[in-house]
Write a structure and sequence with these properties.
Elements (H helix, E strand, L loop, with lengths): L2 H8 L4 H17 L3 H4 L7 E3 L2 E3 L3 E3 L10 H5 L5 E7 L12 E4 L4 E4 L8 H10 L6 E5 L10 H12 L5 E5 L14 H22 L5 E5 L5 H13 L4 E4 L20 E4 L3 H15 L4 E5 L5 H10 L3 E4 L1 H6 L2 H13 L1
Parallel strand pairs: 3-4, 3-13, 4-7, 7-8, 8-9, 9-10, 10-12, 12-13
Antiparallel strand pairs: 1-2, 5-6, 6-11
Helix pairs in contact: 6-7, 7-8, 8-9, 9-10, 10-12
Function: Catalyzes the conversion of dihydroorotate to orotate with quinone as electron acceptor.
EC number: 1.3.5.2
Catalytic activity: (S)-dihydroorotate + a quinone = orotate + a quinol
Length: 339
Amino acid sequence: MSYALLRPILFTMDPEQAHEKTLEMLEKANNANLLGFAYGKQSLPTTCMGINLLNPVGLAAGLDKNGAYIDALSELGFGFLEIGTVTPRPQAGNDKPRLFRIKEAGAIINRMGFNNDGVDVMIANIEKAKYQGVLGINIGKNAITPVEHALDDYVYCLERVYPYASYITINISSPNTKNLRDLQNADALSALLEGIKTCHLRLANDYGFYVPLALKIAPDLDLMQVDTISRTVLNFDIDGLIATNTTLSRTGVEGYKHAGEAGGLSGRPVNHQSTLILSEFAYRLSHRMDLIGVGGIDDGELALKKIHAGAKAVQLYSGLIYKGPALITDCVQMLADYR
């Protein structure tokens, strides 16, 4: 059954229940060898952070937090996958309900709060997966860890996921973990990246191979913050920047049901601000670092807009909820036509 037929049924469910049901159905379809037949591989070779991608359209973190559906998701046509956010210890996340659709605007508000089963469970899931493609792992801190001790959590996760990751994303931009975005401020970011980079270089030496590091940032930044973050990531030789996470703004959803819910807004309304921040970083980093554009992509033209703004690759999440896997094909084709 096509996603266009399934979506009305899924949208009668609670959004979080629908999310879980969709992943379960994907897993069953993959086990029956139906996904590769339906979607297949889509080749548009791209290099990002020194990594060879099958195509430049990837899955954003958040959809598969525990890496439990890697094989199924890999059959939808993505050029790369990013799983997580994962934390050192399991945590339930924020109280339910915590996920809300705003269908009129093609938007989602979430305050999930890094709900996940912990890094050891994720690693066990990765070890069971057959997928041999590019796998990014997004790491964060536990909610109970004070922000001044956040480095401990990032290092803990970094040490454990390093041998399994094609690249590792440092997530300091979720609005749903108290004080997490404080880590984007100048002194805090420098201290965090210094500690992470020290660990990173030690791991590269110990394992004999280098896994690129990316930093995921918020769209709710002023130009002074963009300047500071740009200088800092260059100072510490971070390999990539993922722009952006969800926004605290409610521009574009004013007056709609659920617009007043706490949490991060994603989907079509975040596209403009997310792409603007992406372009500001691209201007300052001046091709010295690869950027991945994410935020509000729900058709191929918006994916191309991210590339024009300076991204080497893009990621999808909320758009998939509204458009289904056909969105991946649309984006790859649009980027192929542009080339």
